[in-house]
From TrEMBL, chains A, B:
Domain (GST N-terminal): residue spans on this chain: 1-78
Protein name per its UniProtKB record: Glutathione S-transferase
SUPFAM superfamilies: GST C-terminal domain-like, Thioredoxin-like
InterPro entries: Glutathione-S-Trfase_C-like (IPR010987), Glutathione-S-Trfase_C_sf (IPR036282), Glutathione_S-Trfase (IPR040079), Glutathione_S-Trfase_N (IPR004045), Thioredoxin-like_sf (IPR036249)
UniProt keyword terms in alphabetical order: Transferase
Every GST C-terminal domain range: 83-215
PROSITE patterns in the record: GST_CTER (PS50405), GST_NTER (PS50404)
Gene Ontology molecular function: any one: glutathione transferase activity
Subunit text: Homodimer.
One BP term from GO: glutathione metabolic process
A Pfam family per the record: GST_N_3
Amino acid sequence: MNRLYHVPLSPFCRKVRLVLAEKKIEVDLIEERYWERDPDFLRRNPAGKVPVLRIDGLAMAESQAICEYLEETHPTPALLPSDPKGRHEVRRLCAWFDDKFHHDVTSKLLYERVNKKMMGQGYPESRNVKAGATQIKHHIDYIGWLLDQRRWLAGDVMTLADFAAAAHLSCLDYISDVDWNRNTVVKDWYAKIKSRPAFRSLLADQVPGFPPPAHYSDLDF
Amino acid sequence: MNRLYHVPLSPFCRKVRLVLAEKKIEVDLIEERYWERDPDFLRRNPAGKVPVLRIDGLAMAESQAICEYLEETHPTPALLPSDPKGRHEVRRLCAWFDDKFHHDVTSKLLYERVNKKMMGQGYPESRNVKAGATQIKHHIDYIGWLLDQRRWLAGDVMTLADFAAAAHLSCLDYISDVDWNRNTVVKDWYAKIKSRPAFRSLLADQVPGFPPPAHYSDLDF
């Protein structure tokens, strides 16, 4: 059986979980407290990070590289368009969320509020939380701007870019850090992606010590 | 004519420059002081970062997404293998260097010593420089470990993974922060890649206020 070593509130793990579910690839989810640096786990991925996917006899690391592998080996449904320009736009947006959004927002809100406590690294730094709360607004505006021109983030069909974005936003929504009233177009896009069967496992996540708000798993939030 | 907006000592720009040169795609290099946030430049890339490549009527951002695009539109010479497992390994290692090595080493040495001064952000933080100097050793050991099993970083042929690694190391070599005597296998690998015609433009770079050491452009260093 395939195995995904993950933590529930990692946007990178969630992106891979969404891709696996969308492509109907069955997988056992195994929670890995990667910050404890278990030697067995470090052998699987010397970078010491999740996600790690055990599939086809390999232990694969790095979420974007994993998603590209799954796209190549399980091409249906397609999560990248077939033309190089369209593929570039999807990959650019994945990098936007996994790099810029992660730096500006996810690391400032989720990591301060949840990861620090989970890893025993003290209390949230209020300066960071404040910066993250400001910057998420600009990012929601950017998503809204994209969606004013396109049905989905990278074009007219749903792609990996939507999953990358939704993976980050869903983690932040778990801790009530997304103001869905800021932009109804963004809210409608998230409602569409949230109602997909692939999203169900994410909505069922429960992190001890951090109960999700009622709206988190509500499809009509 | 194609245009690459770049800065000379950016590992991400250098990775793209190596790919362009290896694939013999001509390009005008335009230095972009991206930290000054020129509105014209921000229109090209709202992320406000280099590299940005103007090609085929588009302004493309994000180095890995650009390299994937170039690989798809200019497949010769191939910089990704044809099998999904091999492609995953190349992409995993690109992420290793552009994410982990960048965080552990490049941001701690190059950004502290050069970027801060260039951007008027003060003096190097010695704690960071010290951490970077320690961590580069572990990374050189990891590269050496890979090369004990393979001719090139991701397997038996040269790939984008070698360019990603060499892009970071060449920036650090420009400021004499690589101890090539630590591992002769790593040194030999770097000598091989450094002697490629694609590398010439990198070796000719000159950053005002930061003259490179003599060994930087010496193929017999």
